[in-house]
Amino acid sequence: xxxxxxxxxxxxxxxxxxxxxxxxxxxxxxxxxxxxxxxxxxxxxxxxxxxxxxxxxxxxxxxxxxxxxxxxxxxxxxxxxxxxxxxxxxxxxxxxxxxxxxxxxxxxxxxxxxxxxxxxxxxxxxxxxxxxxxxxxxxxxxxxxxxxxxxxxxxxxxxxxxxxxxxxxxxxxxxxxxxxxxxxxxxxxxxxxxxxxxxxxxxxxxxxxxxxxxxxxxxxxxxxxxxxxxxxxxxxxxxxxxxxxxxxxxxxxxxxxxxxxxxxxxxxxxxxxxxxxxxxxxxxxxxxxxxxxxxxxxxxxxxxxxxxxxxxxxxxxxxxxxxxxxxxxxxxxxxxxxxxxxxxxxxxxxxxxxxxxxxxxxxxxxxxxxx
Length: 371
Ligand code: SF4
Fold this sequence. Notes:
Blueprint: E1 2-5, H1 11-24, E2 28-31, H2 37-46, H3 53-64, E3 70-72, E4 75-78, H4 87-90, E5 106-107, E6 110-112, H5 117-130, H6 135-157, H7 162-177, H8 184-198, H9 200-205, H10 207-213, E7 217-223, H11 225-228, H12 237-244, E8 245-249, H13 255-260, H14 272-286, E9 292-298, H15 302-317, E10 322-327, H16 333-352, H17 359-368
Parallel strand pairs: 1-2, 1-3, 3-5, 4-6, 7-8, 7-9, 9-10
Helix pairs in contact: 1-6, 1-7, 2-3, 5-6, 6-7, 12-16, 14-15
Bound molecules: iron/sulfur cluster.
């Protein structure tokens, strides 16, 4: 049995969980190819005009899935105890049914971690029944999925690249088949710590030393994982930025740091992605070694319309250079490159001039931040 998994939207956050889950059930998961022009065009034809770019891409990826028995479109209601996903996540799969090729069955399940692990298991057991799997198989698969997801998040939290962290999942599958003699967790942790000692530890322990003599700018790219890592839709922004600066990402900030930086709000943020973006954004604003922040958003994103403004106010308070890049299906590469170069030039000049802000500029900032 082959299940089609679109390489869009929740792929960038939750694919490791589902890969581990289905792997344990002995089901092959087939992903769509990386986004290209045809996928984007097909998505635009099938998705609603009013929806956001990531959902349009998801519609295109659904149509790009070939030779599969089912298309998997989970409804992810909540991924942790006290938040929900955005309303457009909640509308899946119904909002995307027009994109499903005629006659192709859709496999779905509701995942709501607010209701606890027991309820999640119950819902997954319902999915297992459709796939002819027993409750005990599903329980083991759930634990396997959680283990793979943890590996992925730990890798990202340790500063690994997205591609490298996803590759870790392939290694997890290999470990699983070879695990008769070797305890999987130990080998994985050993490998990860070895890697951390050469890369991630440099990022933390050696920062003060690097900062004193650094010549590269350090820029934080803030935004949803499915925008920052979607290189076709974001016109290779991440790669372009990495050519000119050291880049920090929201996804590399671990949950503990996100939690400690959720301050300055009158009430808790409702959406899980927004919480992560705001917490990580706050951290980057306060971090003196971050020279500037680029907020990557997309046209039609309701949650970003609020969170982007919150992060921008924090950045203004701290006089941190800040730029918003809004993507849609018409975004052009030339315009992006021009804006990026202008922003980086400005940040560089500012670093040379010690962040000087005129009295008039300070007055403007003070007034614009009055809530
Ligand atoms: S959070 Fe924004 S970009 Fe993401 S699915 Fe919702 S509306 Fe779209």
